[in-house]
Amino acid sequence: MDNPVIATPLNAAKIDTDGLTVAELGHTSKVNLRGDFSSSTVNNALTTLLGMESTLAPNAFVSNGASTLFWLGPNERLIYTDSDPETIASQWRDQVGTGAVDVSDYSTVLRLSGPKVRDVIVSGAPFDVHPDEFKVGQCAQTRFGNASILLSNHAETPVFQMQVRWSFAEYAFEYIKRVANYV
Amino acid sequence: MSQPQRLSAGGSIDRSKLLSFMFDGRQYTGYQGDTLASALLANGVRLMGRSFKYHRPRGAIAAGSEEPNALVQLETGAYTEPNTRATCIELYDGLVAKSQNRWPNLEFDVGAVNSLVARFLPAGFYYKTFMWPASMWMTYEKFIRKAAGLGVSPVDDDPDVYHGTYAHCDVLVIGGGPAGIAAATAAANGGARIILLDEGNDFGGGLLGTSDNAASTSYIDGALQVLEQNDNVRLLSRTTATGYYDYNYITALEKVTDHLGPANGGDAPRQRFWKIRAKQVVIAAGSIERPLIFADNDRPGVMLANAVGTYINRYGVLPGNDVVVFTNNDSAYQVALDAAAAGATVTTVDTRRNVSSELKSKLEQNNIRLFEGHAISSVQGSKGVESVRIMQLSEDGESVQGQAWEIVCTCVATSGGWTPSCHMFSQSGGKLKYDESIAGFIPDPSKAKVSSPNFSAGACNGSFTTHACIEQGIAAGAKAAAAVGKTASASSVNAFAVSEIAQGAIAPLWLVPTVHPVGEGKAKHFHDFQNDVTAADIHLAAREGFVSVEHLKRYTTTGMATDQGKTSNLNALAIMANIQGVSIPEVGTTTFRPPYTPLTFGAVGGQESRELFIQERKTPMHEHHVANGAVFEDVGDWKRPWYFPQAGEDMHAAVQRETLAVRESVGMLDASTLGKIDIQGKDAVKLLEMVYTNNWQKLAIGSCRYGLMLNEHGMIFDDGVTTRLGENHFHMTTTTGGAARVMSWLEEWLQTEWPEWEVYCTSVTEQWAVMAINGPNARDLLQELTDIDVSKESFPFMTMREGSVAGVPARVYRISFTGELSYEINVPARYGRHLIEALTEAGKKYDLVPYGTEAMHVLRAEKGFIIVGQDTDGTVTPHDMDMDWIVSKTKEEYLGNRAQVRVDTKRDKRPQLIGLLTEDPTVVLPEGAHIVAEVLDKPPMPTIGHVTSSYMSPNAGRSIALAVLQDGINRKGETVSLAMMDGSVHQALVTDTVFVDKEGVRVRG
């Protein structure tokens, strides 16, 4: 059999209009991690599995190149990783004993850049993305229209990422396309 | 001559841009910068519409958004908009408008006969007269609506696009007059994020309508320039704050391209709806002048004094060459001076007897006659003022006396004082207090709602001079900035002097007497122009015992029109207070409610219309289904293949073919939409024990079990198969529509009742793409694609195996919703398309048939498997569904357990699930058909049950149905009657619910 095609919900769709560029990232491995992130067990697991520290401010994310760790809640983190997600999940369960789930395909990631980005995002998100309030390195779970999203701020230029569930990806993409004309 | 009332100079209109427009079929011209109202007045058109109830001729009384009379039907066809205020329509070339409430035309209106029979149409008339008999109300209502009604709604789709957006700021300033601009300036200096909005197309508020005042104008212009250059300031003109909600959440409507005319806005949205969360709010909403209520005060040409001033100063239009100014305070004297300066012959009538010598000498210098202690006792002219009569007021103001003087005039500029616009403060939850010095209500900051912090400044706070407005604005802006931790410097505001006539000592005269007592004679004293409510109506309401102000409002409909009583409310309260012999604050105010001015539904919906109204969720295999001709069905918000018609097939034929194929060879169904929840943690099994009715302790790793979830009332609310992946690791499935509800249900219990349990629930619905393959050939087909040992012995029914399918990692669950040999192949969503293509290819030699949800429904009904939400409706227990087998007899507790022993849950003759076989096997009963205890000639007939699912089953070779029937389980073997809507009756045999393979051999094959 041929090598299976690795699909994403938007087939790498793009928007390139005046003041706004949007691109769907390629398939990204993601693991949802649960546990007590103040414990040494968790810290050790993060260090050995990902080479990362567990100290992370609420609503912040940190990257070491190979992996990016997002704060989702007091007992919940999300990682994007170049490593095999199933392996990380099962090793986490073995080492920490708490929840770990491969959620690589649950959602896709849109990368948004350009001067219109903030106005586009707040057209659908009741969340303050002003640079004083939502800084580079911060992330937040909010909504965009009816879609639950994980929003993160990656550069001052500005660059944002919007993680959206697979089945809502087309909706969010069309939403962005429509409001891009209006802002 | 065109535009006969246009002054030769002055105003902020652009005389180089001549615009042409149509009103009631006649062509007129105006200038860029005009409103429709100012352009009509420039053309000498005073009559702009008819009133709501009496069809009285009416003209504009205001120059702003408080206008009650001049409502027009703007534009035509799909772009038409009813009840649009001519005073707020910015003129554009080619504008088309029509007056309202008249038939056949404005000059001659048949409905005006209502005015002659006014004695028989008092307040409350409709409700009293047409309430009986109640059954006729629907008929009456049509005619009343037609006779009364305002404009006409468009019938075509709205061709415009709209934008909605959220915004956050430190300080929102509502109103861009002198107070608002000062507040924004003060707050912005300290670096606070500001939004300053104003409903006008230019900032400046009341100053825009005053005669040129160099000091204030240069202050405003300077301040605006600074604000425009500040990145932290957003200036929104043409934007009205429509509602003020809890925690400083304010909505505002921005008219983005309305002023350009239909279809001239390019790509820009027509309107934008702002949803603003502000840390602090400065309300600088200004004030609204009150009309004096005198006999026939509604004749076209009678206007608010400041409106006359605004038309002169801002638009260069003199509303009448002979102007009578009628006032009870000083502010209108400036209008008298402005009108005289514009060339009008002006007479001033003041109800007071103590006009200051300074004002008197100003009038004298401008040849303006002054009548002190006088009042207008009548107005001559019906389609427009021709003259007024004035008489001396008695000392107590209760009557007029002496010689009447007739003064020829075409415009009456009236001022009864000013009402602060407290709408926003009141909507924020604050309480008002009465200020005697201005005879009006103002915000009481000591009774503001703590959770919606705001500061009122300027005229809306009862301070009417420009100087006071700016000072209060600075103070409010500074306080708001300080409250968000920013410093504000007041030094940026230059001291300046301004010359203007302040309101001075107001002498309230709430109801101007005439030669007859109010309500007698032909004259009417209108206080609410838009709803045609008169002072006499308030007297009537009082006589009939309506004491509460809220009752008064509903009985007389005062304040209930689209203008929400902006010009009328205080006058109504005052008249009521006078009748009752109490003070105005004792009468109290009615509630201010959003929206402040009418707004379009389109704007509220914003971009979330059409395809974006609700998300269309699609599975990873969606495009493959499309390519294979699927017809889709909405399930929850998902698009699921309903059936796959082949050439020449209708739905029935396709579904029959798909249903047969599954039992004869093999079919495949996209089952990706089912909810999936990954459950982990050492207390995971405890959670399952609580949320399902059956036992989960002993489920082996790698095994699957069906479960039923009940709510607290013991009623079925979801079902699905859950599989044990590890000692403390489960994979739960839910119904498609119930996925989010179940997830919330689990989280709610975990977070509120069992927070100490270690259980983690993660939605994985979209992680997995799922293809179900069902039928005798399913095993052989799977065998072709997998490295899993699929033999009966090593992969039995109700187990799960991991391996590779079509070269990609997969979990295969041997579970079945069809009663056939079935496998549900789960692969990561990225391989969903790959999986369905591989199955399609490998399935060719097994005659693999893709099937949709309709065939799935038939297949499961053939086996008597329920669909939660179709065969259940939130009122059925497991026992009602004949599913006692799934309820544990040994568990101490599970959710819904205790409800099972409630009297009603245990009673006899509850409706229970049964099968039905019609006597005529070709009859497919309609779902919802009633089983009746007794067939009567006509309904109602005693109902004992109803059909929940009904299909033509090709595998049973006849129609089948599931139904709920009182005491149904004990009635198997009986024949029941079903009464149809068309009067026919079908007989059906009550059976068990399994119609195919009763022994359940096939699923275990």
Features:
heterodimer; A: 183 residues; Gyrase A, domain 2; Alpha-Beta Plaits; 6-stranded antiparallel sheet; 5-stranded antiparallel sheet; 11 strands; 23% helix; globular; B: alpha+beta; 6-stranded mixed sheet; 24 helices; 47 strands; 22% helix
Summed up:
The complex is a heterodimer of chains A (183) and B (1005). Chain A is an alpha+beta fold. In chain A, 23% of the residues lie in helices and 34% in strands.
- Mean pLDDT level of chain A: 95
Task: List SSEs of chain A in N-to-C order.
Answer: EEEHEEEHEEHEEEH
Helix content of chain A: 10-25%
Q: What is the gyration radius of chain A calculated from CA atoms?
A: 17 Å
Largest interface chains and counts: A-B, 51 and 55 residues
Strand content of the residues of chain A, in percent? Answer: 25-35%
- Strand-pairing-aware structural class of chain B: alpha+beta
Tell me, what's the shape of chain A?
globular
Large-scale geometry of chain B: elongated
Strand order of the largest sheet of chain A: 1-2-8-11-10-9
The separation of the N and C termini of chain B measures 97 Å
Sketch the major β-sheet of chain A. 6 strands, antiparallel
What's the alpha carbon Rg of chain B, rounded to whole Å? 38 Å
**What's the end-to-end separation of chain A, in Å?**
48 Å
Explain what this protein looks like in three dimensions.
Chain A has two domains: 14-26 and 106-180, Gyrase A, domain 2; 29-102, Heterotetrameric sarcosine oxidase (Alpha-Beta Plaits, 2-Layer Sandwich). Helix content of chain A is 23%, strand content 34%. Chain A contains four helices and eleven strands. In chain B, 22% of the residues lie in helices and 27% in strands. Chain B contains 24 helices and 47 strands. In chain B, strands 8, 9, 10, 11, 12, 13 and 26 form a seven-stranded mixed sheet that branches. Chain B is elongated and about 115 Å long. Classes of the chains: A alpha+beta (183), B alpha+beta (1005). At the A-B interface, strand 7, helix 3 and helix 4 of A face strand 8, strand 13, strand 36 and helix 22 of B.
